[in-house]
Design goal:
Layout lengths: L1 H26 L8 H9 L3 H28 L5 H47 L10 E8 L7 E9 L2 E9 L4 H19 L4 H15 L6 E9 L4 E7 L4 E5 L4 E5 L20 E2 L5 E5 L1 H4 L10 H11 L5 H16 L8 E8 L9
Antiparallel strand pairs: 1-10, 2-3, 3-4, 4-5, 5-8, 6-7, 6-9, 9-10
Helix pairs in contact: 1-3, 1-4, 5-6
Length: about 350
């Protein structure tokens, strides 16, 4: 009975290996005789239903072959020592084949997951503004880089009319696919509310209510939402847990670090939302939204980059274009880290009132 079981396992495993090889051909990862368009079509759009049916057919075929072979052996008489020795040798070979088949199947799953993650990153990055909106008398720049294939940071800049631009930066807890979906949801709600002309405080209260219902327990999003008004050179805003906010005052050559104005979003369904005093933008002033991926970027000793180093970079390069200033900031972090890997998503949004707009000041 033992020898019969061994033989059946050998045959069944061999059938499984044939199934695995066939699955690889179906996924387009094993050499098959087919045209190039067919191969590309299989790689781009696997036929799941066909694979399941083919899988079932191969399993039935392997089982039938195993039963037939066992019956043939029984008709020839009882198994002897030679049969057992041959079965043992075949079982060893089959074990190797089975292991290879399982590794190849895992490889296929891993490749599919990597393609899905790459697609998620592409979709997320393509949703960010391709270029910042223009506003007379102002310069805007922004940049974002996730730590993983997809990130928990997002930013947006939406021109509302000739004198106003809506600004958003949000950072979900963690990084990866889950946080990326959460901040994408927030961005979509913010953009739609702004386009519909919803009051900023009312909009953020409704978004917070929705996120409280949608986010998993223990998860939240820090978010800054504001409107830059070129007619009075002010930024009206709400900052749900997103801090610190940096305001460089050019005429005084100093930096003010502003705290968040309310709780992070998604924690409490109802809480008092009071807009802080608007940010007054004088000629040469720079307002910066910077995610904690910059502040908390550590070197090999564990010391973080911190606010002081960011302030130093802003002061030193404040006369350059904002895009060059952004690059200077990223380069300073890279040199400070000295090869230490990025552990958190990094996002920055910069706004500067040009000195040429001084004559437009009320």
């Amino acid at each position: 009975m033992l020898r019969l079981t061994v033989l059946l396992l050998v045959l069944a495993n061999a059938g499984y290996f044939a199934w695995a090889q066939g699955s690889l051909r179906d996924w387009g990862l094993a050499p098959v005789q087919q045209s190039e368009p067919q191969r590309l079509e299989q790689q781009i759009r696997p036929q799941s239903v066909r694979l399941l049916r083919a899988d079932e057919a191969r399993r039935l075929e392997a089982a039938s072959a195993g039963v037939a072979k066992a019956a043939e052996c029984l008709q020839a008489g009882p198994f002897d020592e030679d049969d057992e020795r041959i079965a043992t040798i075949l079982a060893a070979h089959c074990a190797v084949a089975l292991q290879k088949a399982m590794l190849l199947e895992e490889y296929v799953r891993k490749q599919k997951m990597e393609r899905d993650l790459a697609l998620a990153r592409e979709i997320q990055m393509s949703s960010l503004p391709r270029q910042m909106p223009e506003l007379t008398g102002y310069e805007l720049a922004a940049w974002s880089q996730p730590a993983d294939e997809a990130g928990g940071d997002v930013y947006d800049a939406l021109r509302l009319d000739v004198q106003r631009v809506a600004l958003l930066m949000a950072d979900a807890t963690g990084h990866g696919i889950g946080p990326a979906l959460s901040v994408s949801q927030l961005r979509a709600m913010f953009r739609m509310g702004m386009l519909l002309g919803t009051d900023l405080s009312e909009l953020m209260s409704k978004i917070n209510l929705q996120l409280t219902s949608d986010l998993p327990r223990g998860h939240f999003i820090t978010a800054f939402a504001g409107i830059l008004d070129g007619s009075n050179h002010r930024i009206r805003y709400l900052s749900g847990g997103q801090a610190p906010l940096m305001h460089f005052r050019a005429d005084e050559d100093r930096v003010d670090w502003l705290d968040a104005s309310t709780l992070p979003m998604g924690i409490l369904a109802w809480h008092l939302v009071v807009a802080p005093p608007p940010i007054e933008m004088r000629p040469g002033d720079i307002f910066a939204l910077i995610s904690d991926g910059f502040f908390e970027y550590a070197d090999r000793t564990g010391e973080r980059f911190g606010k002081e180093r960011i302030e130093e970079v802003i002061r030193l390069h404040r006369q350059e274009t904002l895009e060059k200033l952004r690059k200077r900031l990223c380069e300073a972090v890279r040199l400070y880290a000295a090869g230490h890997p990025q552990e958190d998503d990094m996002t920055v949004v910069l706004v500067r009132r040009n000195r040429a707009s001084e004559s437009l000041s009320p």
